Amino acid sequence: MARPAARFVCQQCGAVHPKWAGRCEDCGAWNSLVEEASAEAPPKGLGAARGRRIELVGLEGSEEEAPRRVTGIGEFDRVAGGGLVPGSALLVGGDPGIGKSTLLLQVAARLGATGSVLYISGEEAVEQVRMRARRLGVATAPVQLAAATSVRDIVASLDQGEVPALVVVDSIQTMYVDSLDSAPGTVAQVRSSAQELIRLAKRRGFALVLVGHVTKEGTIAGPRVLEHMVDTVLYFEGERGHQFRILRAVKNRFGPTDEIGVFEMTDRGLAEVLNPSALFLADRQGDVSGAAVFAGMEGTRPMLVEIQALVAPSAPGTPRRAVVGWDGGRLSMILAVLEARAGVAIGANDIYLNVAGGLRIQEPAADLAVAAALISASTGQALPAATVVFGEIGLSGEVRAVSQTEQRLKEAGKLGFERAMMPPQRGRRLARSAEVSSQEIGTVAELVALFEDKGAAAARRSQP
Ligand code: TYD
Ligand code: MG
């Protein structure tokens, strides 16, 4: 009998290769190929047996949508698209130690009040989970606990009896299916374990939450394949040194994907942050040069954050660029536009750009705030006091309109800002909030001129 062909599975992307190599040809990851016993027989085609005819139906139907399970933790519910959907699978990914287990124990405890909830830990012993529950002040919540890693046992236990509202499996990397030879945490195990658990959740109609660790490279350990299998993928992120954490939807079959939830890690677990702008602006130094407050939107909610820039003379050679919380490529574009369209040549300097507080901004609407911070840093002049900035910058130097202007202005007003540097509205009617006046900026050259005027005025003032 022929020896079963060896197969090498990339632990990053799940691609299967017939030969070992130092680098996965599919995703380019190094040292990620691991030999796995070939589980599946080679595909045989359909053969002679005839299948059943599938029934086709119209788009319109009268399927009753099962009500979502609302946990009552608003920041979590919103990111999940309005609560947990029965029969769906949700993956929560994040770095080890970021607070996934803490968050999900709190979610389980809250939901336990309205339905039966199971928390299956593959990483911690029952006593450890109980200790955490005591610390979180939820020790009396009606949550059923188990420490288990065998998917066969878990499926057998959940296959009968009352249907739970929610099952949390922490983490998918510790689960194993005993019919496979590979170790827990390998792509094959993670994939099969998830498949079995998701099938069970769909069949029995409970909401399944899987916890997944993220690798150094920032993808959910091993299986990007896992992201395709679940209905919803949430990432829990944050800087270890900062106390706040952000829950971000990156995929959601049942809701929007641009929502974020903001939490603060306290000594009694994660607390919801209902006013994130105040948190992100808490350490602001006031009106110093090189800082601009960006009025951003994260999904449906406005969020003010400070963008800081530092422009420093560069040593000979390639100037340094260090960007935290924003896209480095976008920074290069802004620098190029400033130089070509407004004559601001700062590209030869070292440039540091930081979104204060550790938030990651993806919106192009931050362009104008970044440009303002850069010009302010290079001229040494602060922006006018109590001013927020937003607007997208185009390649010809024009400032383009962005969505949800009203919400941005409203949030700025709420936090005591008085002025907004923003794109021209060109006749668009805004329901203005009374307290924020707008200063429309049409091009980057106009933005630069603002600093020049002020500089000239300051120079005049300082003359004897
Ligand atoms: P944890 O939920 O175990 O992280 P994960 O499951 O993502 O690996 O969180 C662990 C960290 O959270 C740990 O460093 C301690 C901290 N923590 C608090 O600060 N306060 C708390 O109330 C709890 C339970 C944990
Ligand atoms: Mg954990």
Q: What is the level-2 CATH architecture name of the largest domain?
A: 3-Layer(aba) Sandwich
Sequence stretches where pLDDT stays below 50 over 5 or more residues: 460-464
The value of Rg in angstroms is: 27 Å
Under CATH at level 1, the class of the largest domain stands as Alpha Beta
Secondary-structure class: alpha/beta
Could you explain how this protein is built, in words?
The chain has 464 residues and is α/β, with parallel strands linked by helices. It folds into three domains: 6-37; 74-274, P-loop containing nucleotide triphosphate hydrolases (Rossmann fold, 3-Layer(aba) Sandwich); 278-462, Ribosomal Protein S5, domain 2 (2-Layer Sandwich), CATH 3.30.230.10. It is 27% helix and 23% strand. The protein has helices at residues 74-79, 100-112, 126-136, 151-158, 187-204, 225-229, 276-280, 328-342, 367-379, 405-414, 444-462; strands at 7-10, 16-17, 33-36, 89-94, 117-121, 143-147, 166-170, 207-213, 232-237, 244-252, 260-266, 269-272, 291-298, 301-312, 321-324, 350-355, 387-389, 392-393, 399-400, 419-422, 437-440. The strands form four sheets. It has a nine-stranded mixed beta sheet with strand order 6-5-7-8-4-9-10-11-12. The chain has a seven-stranded mixed beta sheet with strand order 15-16-14-13-17-20-21. A three-stranded antiparallel beta sheet has the order 2-1-3, with no helix packed on it. Residues 460-464 have low confidence and may be disordered. The structure holds thymidine-5'-diphosphate and magnesium ion. Thymidine-5'-diphosphate binds at residues 94, 96-102, 132, 135-136, 265, 267-269.
